[in-house]
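Homework-ish question, so no full write-ups if that breaks the rules, but can someone show me the predicted structure for this set?
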Amino acid sequence: MNNIARAEAFIRHWEDRDPAAIAAAVAEDVFYHNIPMPPMTGREAVREFAAPFLENADRVQWDVHYIAETTNGAVLTERTDHFHMKTGKTISVRVMGVFEFNAAGEIQKWRDYFDLAEFQSQMS
Amino acid sequence: MNNIARAEAFIRHWEDRDPAAIAAAVAEDVFYHNIPMPPMTGREAVREFAAPFLENADRVQWDVHYIAETTNGAVLTERTDHFHMKTGKTISVRVMGVFEFNAAGEIQKWRDYFDLAEFQSQMS
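A: Not a homework solution, just the prediction itself:
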């Protein structure tokens, strides 16, 4: 499996609202940085971040507009991430993100770039 | 010249603080969207946006962390854009952006993703 396929599989784990699969796809010491927010480190931190959010969602859809792999194996994406919440609210975030992989094919680093105010105004 | 080379040349035009070269590299009807801001359309709008900003800068440096081209020719970048202003202030924006090219090799669409508050807090 190439790294684009790995990134696509990871996105499907979010759409499947499967925190265990999300956690399994990242490295034990993954570095995950939503750029306008404090970064987090470690598989367990990612699981704890994803699980409550996904539990409150009915449906998750990440539209991938573009995906490309650099010559050294990083995967760059342009996406719109939709979260249809159980409250009836939909959160849609316009985002670009980078995934870096380790030798085992796990996500070692993940950085997502978006406007925090756009996200927060929909969360409130 | 492939599209990665075109995107790199475009970035150098910003570093050279050359609004004419920037304008020449984009399509007449370019669509330029700094995602958290209103989009603009047209070569002249891009020139009018870039020129006063670059006139007030002593030095511009865009660090490209990653660059990759999709199978259909779009170029995705992860960058930190530094603007050293004549006031002595430095503005550094963490950004990811997409460039789409037309058949003439001009930039037809450009979308940059960043946190608006991060940019504005440094501008003020």
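Now go work out the reasoning yourself. Hint: Chain B touches chain A through 26 residues (CB under 8 Å).
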